[in-house]
Amino acid sequence: MTSPEPTASEVDGATSPVPQPPLTFYWDFFGPRAEPTALHFKKHLDEFLLLNSLLGCETGVSSDGPGHLAAFCRAPSAAQDAIARALRPRRAL
User: Fold this and answer.
1) What is the pTM of this model?
2) Which of 6, 11, 18, 23 has its CA 20 to 30 A from that of 32?
3) Which DSSP symbol is given to 16?
4) Could you give the CA distance from residue 87 to residue 85 in angstroms, rounded to a whole number?
């Protein structure tokens, strides 16, 4: 019985890239207009994702307390660079 031929990555010691876990980007809004502003931003965020064919993203809004609302986008690794460059989120977790 013969062993299978080694793959190219096994020969040169290269490893396949490990996919990054999803990253959640946030755009924070504060004050009495935080809610309508965050909801409006989310609408444009959804449009951006559709226009740029960025698949696998989940969007929504969340709050850390009174007077604060954040639009968010949970993005797979394939979409993270495009979102970060174009939309410049305030924070990412």
Assistant:
1) 0.78
2) 23
3) P
4) 6
